[in-house]
Amino acid sequence: MNPNDIQKISLEQRDFWDSLQLDILASNQGVTAELFQAFIERNLIFSLISRGASVIEMSALQRLFHSKDYGYLVLFELAEPKKTGLGNFIIDEFELHYFIKEHLPDYDCFLSPFLNNRIAVLVSLDASMSEDLHREHGLSLCHGLIPLTEAHFHVKVTAGIGSIYHLPSVHSSYASALACLPYSNFDPVIFYADLKNYDPNLQFDYLVTQKRLMEALQLRKTRAYNYFSILIDYIRPMNDVMKRNKILELLVLVNNAMDTDNQEGARSFDYMDISRKLMDFSGEQLIDYAYQTFVFLSSYTRPQNSIDYSNHIVKATREYLESHYADDISLEAMAEHVNISPQYFSKLIKKTTGFNFIDWLSMLRVKKAKELLTNSSLTVKEVCFMVGYKDPNYFSRIFKKRIGLTPSEYVKANSFLNNKN
Questions:
Q1: In the prediction, which pLDDT does 10 show?
Q2: Is the pTM of this model over 0.85?
Q3: CA distance 362 to 301
């Protein structure tokens, strides 16, 4: 097979799955004002913690959501009580978003997207507070929310509570919250100032710590943030010239560590641009910028609903569905076709495509039905049988769920548009 044929197959794979995915998303979720607000909030918070929000974004956060001038981040990590071997599990991130909002009515909170089984909650404050009050405030939030979340989603939840910062610098709170997570085996909720209690005998060696940082980044381990914080604390007392040199050196190493496996979409790194920006800052601003850039460089993740086109099970499923969508296909039969267990197949398809097998099959059948209803004189009943359904009433309900119209209404609407044109 020549390269052009391979590229054509790859494009066909993408067209097939991307088209179905967009249709499923549109049919599963109406775009409401509440949903728009959640999207905007999540994007603003992600910008704030990963790269630092722009002036416009900060203004939007304060005007649209009435955020206050200070805040700290609580980072929650959700994990299955028993690991399945499939990596990250699937959870409805908007259900989680609304659940947390509902159960924190006494806190002024804003939520990030759900990434790598973690969700960040920005707790907005009028002013900074003492360490003791901060600890009490954060622990009260976590101990109230965690049992409810564990019971509702059937997961194990741990949390790290970050330090308080002025809102534009709150990305540094994200780093300190992340540094807490590796110690969750001691306590499910760790307050950043208590880290020294869990590792009091830490022996510091700059080069050794730097090496451990690189290894942790390459393995995508959360302890990388802990090592980075240790190195930054070492750099902090230096003069600005030394700070800039050490920070640039560290960020170059971070970028190289994140790019060792050549991940698609890995962060680009412009050395000259970073150098110029470092020259614009001094003192503690340099430290803030170091944390901000570190979080940005190390936060690469596959979007939750992106499709792993290269997975051989995904390829085999696509080929079988296109050829046999009109047959009486069950999940068990599909799993047998690709030679894996039904349980593993179900989890793998949802993990690699973002939706379950029945979603894909019903959406594909509806797409084929739309083509037949638009481009032929077949009756709705005939189309129903041709796309794999045996009951016209059931077919009508599935069609309306996915399209918003019954098959008959769709035919009338399409006929009206054609006559008008």
A1: 54
A2: no
A3: 29
